[in-house]
Amino acid sequence: MNNEYNWLPVIVKNDIAPVPGTTIHFVVDKKYYKAIEKALKNKSNIIIFADNYSEEEADTGVLAEVSQIVKTGRGAMRILVDPKKRVYIDDTSVENGIIYASYYDIAENIPQNNYEVMGMILALRDIFASYAIVNEHVNPDTRKKVEECTDFVEIIDYITANIPIDIYKKIDIVKETDAIERYNLLTLYLTEEINIIRVKKEIFNLAKNRVDKSQKEYYLREQMEVIKEELGDDTNSRIEDYMEQAEKLDAPQTVKDHIFEEIKHMESIMSSSQEMAVTRSYVELLLSLPWNKKSKDNNDINRVKEILDRDHYGMNDVKERIMETLAVRALKKDSESPIICLVGPPGTGKTSIARSVAEALNRKYARICLGGMRDEAEIRGHRKTYIGAMPGRIVNALKKTQTSNPLMLLDEIDKVSSDYKGDVHSALLEVLDPEQNTYFTDHYTEVPVDLSDVLFICTANTTDTIPGPLLDRMEIIDVSGYTSNEKYHIASDHLIPRQIKKNGLKKSWIKISDDAIKDIIMYYTREAGVRGLEKRIGKICRKTAKLIVSGERKSISISSKNLENYLGKKIYRNDEISDKNDIGIVRGLAWTSCGGETLEIEVNVMNGKGNCELTGRLGDVMRESAITAMSYVRSQSEKYGLATDFFEKHDIHIHIPEGAVPKDGPSAGITMATAILSAVTGHEVYSNVAMTGEITLRGRVLPIGGLKEKLIAAGNAGVKTVLVPDENRRDVDDIAEEIKEGLDIVYVSNMEQVLDKAFVR
Predict the structure, then answer these.
(1) Lowest-pLDDT choice from 139-143, 205-209, 557-561
(2) Catalytic residue positions?
(3) Which residues lie closer than 8 Å to 650 by C-beta, 6 or more apart?
(4) CA 630 vs CA 257, 603, 696, 754: distances in Å
(5) Contact 545/590 with Cβ under 8 angstroms?
(6) What pTM value is reported for the model?
(7) Is 182 within 8 Å of 176 (Cβ atoms)?
(8) Residue 630: what pLDDT?
(9) 3-class DSSP string for 169-210
(10) Could you say which DSSP state residue 530 is in?
């Protein structure tokens, strides 16, 4: 053993097998460029770690000589090396970014008995010969070299380098320092490869036999077709049936001609082909569509009103518009169907009233949910040349209802999106435009489908996400949130009976008092619609069912006193207004797609450098509104006795609680201006006053939207006085008296009027 220590640069490559006695080439990482340059100055020798280990963990390596360096056009370096021998790694060191390793030579463990060595070599040759028989890619020169080689170490390395086995198996052999162990590994891997290749060939032969069998069956089927033709039995009963249906079909002549062409084309197609299956499905769809089949409309306006009032409380605007449509249809039979879009918070009955309208008009009902839809093909269908093609949702709805004049509900039209597959909004333009939908063309049907008799009703929570051109084609009807009185009637007339039936109860088993219903509305729900209210009633019914089935009670009576036993403690408080007037805290009114709500705006003033901090997860519009309010207050400094440098020496922090909830919109402008003025002047603000309105730099108050929902929220919160922009006076006149009851609505047009009502004098 040579105990003299040597230090050489190191390269780590875990995707090559540097077998001694061979020549290999590979691309070098940039971090090893210096090591290669250093090696060239020192007899061109390097040490290669062929492993997944890091440089510090390696214990063996291969000493190799760099024989050639080629720099590629992209700045990479490819080297040609000649691995010489395996070496033990004694230590590693890093110097100037180059990793060095000290090493010493390995003494090969070779059997001392020559007969034993020769026997092992002969056994290895036999295994390799078996491998070469099953693997036809083994080079004849390689086989010859193996037959001629008599060196124990050399034959192992040579076979390892020249067989196409997994690289990590080769690395295992390269790393092994004991020659006998290398021999055992190589024979093991060769035996495994022989077995794998044999199994592959068996599977291939089995698959080939199956293909041959399929081809044989194909030819036999073709011969059967020829025999049938020779016997005169070439008439397909199915094609005859299609022809008969097409003759009787009540459809435009252009459609019938197209169907005849497709049926005729079927006669020239082999029955076993894929094209036959596609064409058959296509013809069956065209024959199943209700081209001119219509249901007879119910033109009895009184009957329509009776059905709508039976199923839904309130919603007078929607009911009135439907009856107007009926009146026009009675006078003009060929009038265009309106495209109605119901816009309002969730749970307000937009989807359910469409079903009632369909019943009232004696039309079939089809609901198409557009929420999350992003593929245009969902509307227009797929071209029938594609495998698995099918018509779009519109044509499928016509097929399902089997009438050409159904009521089609396009639900959640505001939640449609677009991507690389197309723009769904653009596809809906053709569907909802009365000038275009007479000739609506589905990609699958390839013939125009008349949608002019379809009554489309769309629903949305907001119009903000609906493109202008699409919005312009629809008639918007606002379905605002319900008042407490409306919720009471809906619960009594609809929700309680429905939940009693749904939970298998009898009316005599459960009684919910009027006061209990009002308490559920006031203390357990805070929403624009009635979904949460129905869930609470459902919970009461389920608990009742449990008590009756278990035998504990025969009937249940729910009142305000025992309501908490069924629904738990109250979630909301009726009166959220503090009796204490405060400085820098003003109550605003907000409107979201889920209804109205009140929110407190807080302002703190601190010594500082004139910074203004806005917190509470405010949107861009609301931030700009806060800046506008701040500018107005600064412009009024002299009027309110503030020093000229007050805002340069103080920081102002505006915060809107519930920081996890996004907030946006301009309607909190006067609220923020009032809160800032209160904080900087020390004036208290009435705690029972709420306000809404957009502010300008000159202090004018501009109109806002969602006033009905905001007034409902104010009433629920116990607000006594509400400041409303003067330009919203006409909107207040249209709001039901029960909503305005108990509220002192004050109209304001400028900030002076706002402060006069808000500040405690």
Answers:
(1) 205-209
(2) 667, 710
(3) 605, 606, 607, 608, 610, 680
(4) 72, 11, 11, 16
(5) no
(6) 0.62
(7) yes
(8) 92
(9) HHHHHHHCCCHHHHHHHHHHHHHHHHHHHHHHHHHHHHHHHH
(10) S
Say if residues 117 and 110 touch (Cβ distance below 8 Å).
Answer: yes
Q: Is the pLDDT of residue 575 over 60?
A: no
Q: Which residue has the tokens 């307000």?
A: 348
For residue 377, give the 3-state DSSP assignment.
helix
Neighbour-count burial of 259, counting CB atoms closer than 10 A to its CB (0-12 exposed, 13-18 middle, 19+ buried): buried
Beta-bridge mates of residue 592 = 595
User: DSSP 3-state assignment of 22?
Assistant: coil
Contact 588, 689 (CB under 8 A): no
Distance, in Å, from the CA atom of 748 to the CA atom of 707, rounded to the nearest integer, reads: 14
- H or E element in which residue 448 lies: strand 448-449
pLDDT grade for 723, boundaries at 50, 70 and 90: very high
Instruction: Tell me the residue type at 455.
Output: L
User: Helix, strand, or coil here: 637?
Assistant: coil
Q: How is residue 15 written in tokens?
A: 């995707």
Chain-centroid distance, C-alpha 107: 64
**Digit-coded pLDDT (tens) for 324-342:** 877 887 787 777 778 889 9
pLDDT at 235: 42
Q: Are 518 and 536 in contact (CB under 8 A)?
A: no
What is the pLDDT of the chain when averaged over all its residues? 85
CB count, 10 Å around CB of 41? 8
CA-based nearest residue to 255, from 447, 462, 20: 447
pLDDT tens for 387-426 read 778 888 999 999 999 999 999 999 999 888 777 667 888 8
571: how many CB neighbours lie within 10 A of its CB?
Answer: 12
The Cα 482–Cα 712 span in angstroms is 9
DSSP assigned state of 337: P
CA 10, CA 731: separation in Å to the nearest integer?
Answer: 83
Residue 571: C-alpha distances to residues 523, 525, 564, 567, 588 (Å): 6, 8, 10, 10, 22
Phi first, then psi: give them for residue 226, nearest 5 degrees.
-65, -45
**CA distance from start to end of the chain:** 104
Residue 348 token pair = 């307000």
The residue type at 665: G
By the 10 Å C-beta count (0-12 exposed, 13-18 middle, 19+ buried), 655 is classed as middle
Kindly list the structural domains of the chain, giving each domain's residue range(s) and its CATH number in brackets, ordered by start.
6-105 (2.30.130.40), 114-198 (1.20.58), 237-288 (no CATH), 301-478 (3.40.50.300), 484-567 (1.10.8.60), 582-758 (3.30.230.10)
In the numeric block, the tokens 């009471």 are attached to 488
